[in-house]
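Supplementary Text 2. Reproducibility record for the structural model of the 229-residue chain.

All settings were left at their defaults, and a single model was retained for analysis rather than an ensemble. We include the record here because the model underlies the residue-level annotations in Supplementary Table 4.
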Amino acid sequence: MNMEDLVPTLEAMLMASEEAVSVERLLKLLAVSFPDIVKDDIKRGLKELAESYEARGVELVELASGYRFRARAKYSEQVGALWEERKPRYSKALLETLAIVAYRQPVTRGEVEHIRGVAVSSNIVRTLLDREWIKVMGHRDVPGRPAVFGTTKEFLDYFGLRKLDELPSLPEVVDLEVAHDTFTDGANRDELGLENKDKRDELDRVADFDNEVTAVVSLESSVLGANND
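Retained model, structure tokens:
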């Protein structure tokens, strides 16, 4: 496979895409132009492309749904200044609910309410479902058969994760300041992602993420306290 042709082709496709693109989809789309192409060629081309951007303001990253370009976190202040508008911030209740689902999935709404100690608004669940951050994974085999929720690939992509294993481990969350830095380092990278289209949505996340991390870490602390009890 001629990498001199493949690498710039991959670059053009990923730059133009509105979302992350998987290796499988790239292979399918490129089969016409490169009849002999195989998956290993795609992976090698992506690796070379990523290396060529090591000293650039953007980077090629792998997320749960595939590969995409995004701005580097160190330029968040300058890039964010391009857009002055900001969307409403998510409530602490919504972020706590999301954190519980992420760490305790599969989990029912009743179990989330038990951990939080308060009722979970239907609007919160609806918002998380509409954002496609959580989904119904099935139903608990108990009276009423309540729905059980889990996170989605969209959730992983939004927070810059490839898999749930990259979330901070709850038993390790002892020093909240360290936990905040650890989680922010992984998640902020995706918050600063720039696609050629819909850039405004991506950048709006930057200003709000510190509050989201604070809520998640607070939730982790409360869960640890409950476990210790």
